[in-house]
């Protein structure tokens, strides 16, 4: 009885070891492919991408603007060239959603108008140091 339990335990242990060892070559190949991909990326090429997206052509890429959409299309063109498929559907790289944003124009101000003894007190706030919309 003891031998049977010991044999069963050793058999299961051996089976687990065998299965673990079998998966190593595939994992090593995947890791090797990943490392090759990472090392194939040029820092100069990455910098070129950053320069393009930061260029005046895209005007800061503020969400909802034409420049933002143009920069997104530029990125999608590269995804297509590299063979990266859309994650959400078969032919769309974008997921539209509403997001509010605020434009702050020069000369804008924020203040609180407090009625006081028949007149008013205005408390002004400085943009960026005291408020950000």
From TrEMBL:
Protein known as: Peptidase M28 domain-containing protein
């Amino acid at each position: 009885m003891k031998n049977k339990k010991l044999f069963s335990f050793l058999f299961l242990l051996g089976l687990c070891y065998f299965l673990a060892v079998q998966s190593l070559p595939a994992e090593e190949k995947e890791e090797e492919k990943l490392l090759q991909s990472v090392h194939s990326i040029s820092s100069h090429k990455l910098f070129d991408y950053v320069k393009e997206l930061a260029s005046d052509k895209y005007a800061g890429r503020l969400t909802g603007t034409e420049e933002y959409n143009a920069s997104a299309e530029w990125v999608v063109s590269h995804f297509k060239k590299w063979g990266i498929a859309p994650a959400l559907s078969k032919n769309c790289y974008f997921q539209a959603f509403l997001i509010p944003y605020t434009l702050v124009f020069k000369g804008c101000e924020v203040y609180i108008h407090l009625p006081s003894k028949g007149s008013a007190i205005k408390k002004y706030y400085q943009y960026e140091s005291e408020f950000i919309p």
